[in-house]
Each structure stands twice: as C-alpha cells, then as structure tokens.
Write a structure and sequence with these properties.
Length: about 160
Amino acid sequence: MDIYIRKTVPGDVDRIMEIYDTARKFMRSTGNMTQWINGYPGRDLILDDIKKGNSYVGVYDGRVTGTFAFILGDDPTYSYLEDGEWLNDLPYGTIHRIASDGTVHGFLEAAVGFAGGITGNLRIDTHDDNRVMQHLLEKNGFTKCGRIFLENGDPRIAYQRHSV
C-alpha cells in the first residue's frame, strides 16, 4: 500500500481539519484526554504551515488520509532536554502535528520515510498519555531521548531517529 506524500495546498485545509477531529477522538478513546485540546491544531496554524512550506499530506487512492508538518532546522523547544540526551547534535528535521484519519495503516512510516529522505536526522515529540504514538515511534526506529517543554511549559517526550 503506497501513501504518496505531497505539499499541502489551501484546498486541503477542510480535509486536514476533519483529520485532526478524527485524531482527537481517537486520542480520547485511548486515554489521551489532554493532548490537542481547545481546537488545537487550528486552521490558522495549518495555513501558516502551508505559507511557510512546512505542511504535507499523505494521499492514498486519490484521497488525503493524513497530515503533518516537517520543519528543517533547529526547533527552539528542543534546545533544552531534560532527563536524557539527544543521539547527536547534527542538523535535523522535526515532524510535528502528525495525524491520520485511521483508514490506512502506515502513515507514520510513510511520513518518516519521506522526511528521512530529506535528512537522516529526525526529531519528534509526543504527550505522556499518547501511548499509541510512543509505540509507533519506537516501532519506526525512534529512540526516547528525554523530555522537552513546549512554549507554554507543557512537557513532551522527545525522540530522535538517526540513519546514515
């Protein structure tokens, strides 16, 4: 099953918002009650990601089934890591706000494959209660490195994947 990754276009935004709604419902059903609350991520953030060229969608059988932001360069929230250390200090790309509609398996793998084709050094973080994502990250070659803190002070588990 091939998922095609492409840049997001403004016409994808309504579908992306549907995907995030589905992802929030899935999180709640798996015990993750506090991640992505109050409508986060919102339409304005997605439009800003598109404007900056950082937003991507996964397309399967002609239909958008997933979305994520991929940003090359230093992420300010990753400058301080608690309770661990990064695998290396090489330049990296960060995957943020990844979600799928759940209809096609392997979206994280497809996104990681795409991003890993741009840089072999990837970072990502997730909520303590997002056990599903933690499992998928480890299954896809990510190593738990410690804890980072978002701009608002919320903690996240930080992961890194390095391939040569």
